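I am writing to request your help with a piece of structural work I have in hand. I am sending you one protein, given as its amino acid sequence and as whole-number tokens for its backbone shapes. Kindly check, if you would, that the fold set down in the tokens agrees with what the sequence suggests. You will find the record immediately after this paragraph:
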Amino acid sequence: MSQVPDTTDVLLTRQRVAEALTAAGYPISHRTLATKATRGGGPPYSLFSGRALYRWGDALEWARSLTTAPRRSTSEADVHATR
């Protein structure tokens, strides 16, 4: 099982980011990250010798930003959407 990095500044490959996010409770595949890198909407990354590198803190912040607040039922989503 993959471990979650201890530091937010570590740089990870796309595969490693997918593994670490999944281990942290945000299941995602490296293929989905690759698609988001092409189409937009994914975590920021840099290139090193043509290879995508993600800062762990940025990837984790991105995943957290897509997560809703805790809910007690599915009907709560309807209430919050109309406000």
About this structure: The radius of gyration is 15 Å.
